[in-house]
Amino acid sequence: MDDIEAVDQAAQSQDRAEPDGSGQDDPGAARERRLAALRAAERVLSRPAADRTLADNLGRLTRRAPEVYDLDRSSDIYGDAIVEELERRVASLLGKEAAAFFPTGTMAQQIAVRTWAGRTGNATVALHPLAHPEQHERDAFSVVSRVRTVHPTTEPRMPSAEEIREFEEPFGTLMLELPLREPGFVLPSWQELVDAVEAGRERDAVVHFDGARLWECTPHFGRPLDEIAALADSVYVSFYKSLDGLGGAVLAGPRSFVEETRTWRHRYGGQIFQQYPTALSALIGLEDELPRLPSYVAQARVVAQALREGFTKAGVPFFRVHPEVPHTHQFQVWLPYGTSVLDEATVRQAEETGTALFRRWFADGPPGLSVTEVTVAGPGLEWSAEDVRGAVEEFVRRL
Question: Which residues does 362 contact at the CB level (< 8 Å), separation at least 6?
């Protein structure tokens, strides 16, 4: 389940769409109705970019840009100026020697594992079978970057230290996705993470963090970003998944490693002439969204509890809010209905009440069972637990 409409899912389900980006499972008229209802909704838990007009997005960019960067400076050309400033800022936040900007996370991580494969002499990458490169990148690791993947575990969690230590094949890179999105944005405990990293090093592997959503992991671990990132040899972070940026990613790590990835970035077609709008939006995200993420995580826990209470009171025969206590500001909700029934209830609630509790549902299990991803961001801070319970009642009435 990847970017099924990456634009529509920008904040709530940011990359659930590659397999059917054509929208074939969501015919045009139904899609437009749904998007119109979500855009018009006055009360939402998050407001992804798709809910804003182009004028809204441009207005925000031009309004905030002078507050995060000197607009009298020269524009960027092939990754200098503002792009270098963004790289320095992220390297500092992550406590790494250097960082390089990439147009996409897919490109960044392909280059990361390829570079480490050359340095370790082992082109095998150990990662989870539900990790983003395995699920949503059309076999790019093997087809484009010529690396092989293996899976220390198939359990819906990060591999344990024991599984890493006892895995029967050698590998050059251990890649850990934090949080692991597909099973519900789940994270290990701090000690489990430390132990897993140590086990990887015992296998003479380098450790790479797929940290697309690393920004919101600090409340769960109780550690600052640089302390978390210090466990890994290299770290990838995204700017659009949590920070409301236009796109883009950064690879951070040792200076010599980062310089080598810049060479591969050029070879992969990532040496873009000008990227100042994306860089500006990333700087705005670091200023506006990054400090607020802990409050989003705290509110997500309130929302998750209220959802459970609401579905229980409504007498829904089966439901699951997972994790019960969200590890980040995103989590899953499972209900025993088909996607068409749940999507229709979602749209009708938005149209008739001005409240959009959910966004879109997916079939990801036995027939008749559907899942959605809930993201709690700025607009969600305005909801009380009673608001959530009331919205659940209205939603269930439309099933």
Answer: 1, 4, 16, 339, 370, 371, 372
330-335/370-375 β-pairing: antiparallel
Residues 89-118: tens digit of each pLDDT? 999 999 999 999 999 999 999 999 999 999
Three-class SS state of 207: strand
Can you say whether the dihedral through the CA atoms of 341, 343, 344, 348 is positive or negative? positive
Question: What are the boundaries of each domain within the chain?
Answer: 18-40+292-397, 59-288
SS3 332: strand
CATH topology of domain 59-288: Aspartate Aminotransferase; domain 2 (3.40.640)
In our burial notation (b when 16+ CB lie closer than 10 A, e otherwise), range 14-36 reads bbbbbeeeeeeebeeeeeeebbe
Judged on CB neighbours under 10 Å (0-12, 13-18, 19+), 126 is buried
- Of 200, 198, 120, 119, which Cα lies nearest the Cα of 164? 200
Give the SS3 label for residue 259: helix
Q: Does the N-terminal peptide bond of residue 367 adopt cis geometry, omega within 30 degrees of 0? A: no
Peptide bond connecting 152 to the previous residue in cis, omega within 30 degrees of 0: no
Separation between Cα atoms, residue 22 and residue 4, nearest integer Å: 8
Q: β-strands 148-150, 173-177: how paired?
A: unpaired
**150, β-bridge pairs:** 126
Question: Rounded to two decimals, what is the model's pTM?
Answer: 0.92
Find out whether 97 and 255 touch, Cβ atoms under 8 Å: yes
Tokens found for residue 66: 């002078």
Cβ pair 332, 372 in contact under 8 A:
yes
Tell me the per-residue pLDDT of 147-156, one tens digit each, with 9 for 90 and over.
999 999 999 9
CATH topology for the 18-40+292-397 domain: Aspartate Aminotransferase, domain 1 (3.90.1150)
Average pLDDT across the chain, whole number: 93
Pairwise CA distance, residues 136 & 264, whole Å: 22
CB-side exposure of 341: number of CA atoms within 13 Å? 14
- Residues 187 and 184: their CA atoms lie apart, in Å, by 9
CA 61 to chain centre: 22
Q: Is 158 helix (H, G, I), strand (E, B) or coil?
A: coil
